Structures are given as structure tokens and as C-alpha cells.
Amino acid sequence: QVQLVESGGGLVQVGGPLRLSCLASGLTFSGYTMGWFRQAPGKEREFVAAIIRSGSSTYYSDSVKGRFTISRDNGKNTVYLQMNSLKPEDTAVYYCAADAIGRRPMEASRYDYWGQGTQVTVSS
User: According to the model, what pLDDT value does residue 102 have?
Assistant: First the structure.
């Protein structure tokens, strides 16, 4: 049974950092592109960042580029999202997801497995 478990969410002040983790089990982690998505209240789920199997290529949405960094440790079956210079508009539930094909890493519909999400709240 595949499980993706996010952690690291919480309440942070504007401008502060936060690091999310996603531990995967039940799959061959190194064989999956991993992505982070987020959903704010009343809004659709949106792409945040993705990293290919080897970790050699990454993708970011324009809204987080330069502030967020995605990384992975295939030995620990974990993907990370380092978030810096957080803004109130970053407030959302953050989800990690796994994609076996990885051809369109920015498209949520392409992902096979999803975590339950972790809440990030940026207070001003």
C-alpha cells in the first residue's frame, strides 16, 4: 500500500522559513517524479514544485521561484520543500504527490499518489 505522509507544516510569520517533508512508503521512491501542490480555501489545487527521479531537474511555479527549493533523498524515501520568505498568500494545505511517468510534472492529473496534506499558515 502506497503512503505519502507530509510533515513540517504550521504557523509561521511573514518572511519566515519552513521546511516540509514527505515520507513515501510502498513504492520504489527513486522511480517516481515527486511534486508539491497546494490548495488555499476557495481555490483550486495548484502546482508548487516538482523534482525528477534523479533529482537533477526541478520545476517551480512562478509564484514560488526563488523562494522555495525542492529536494529529495532517495535513500530516505523523502522529498522536501524548503520555503523561505513566506508570504500570506502562501497559506494553504500543501500536498506531496508521486508520478510514475513524469512527463508533465506540473499537471496534478498526472500524479498517481497523493498525501493527506499539511497546513501552512503565514501570519502577518
Answer: 84
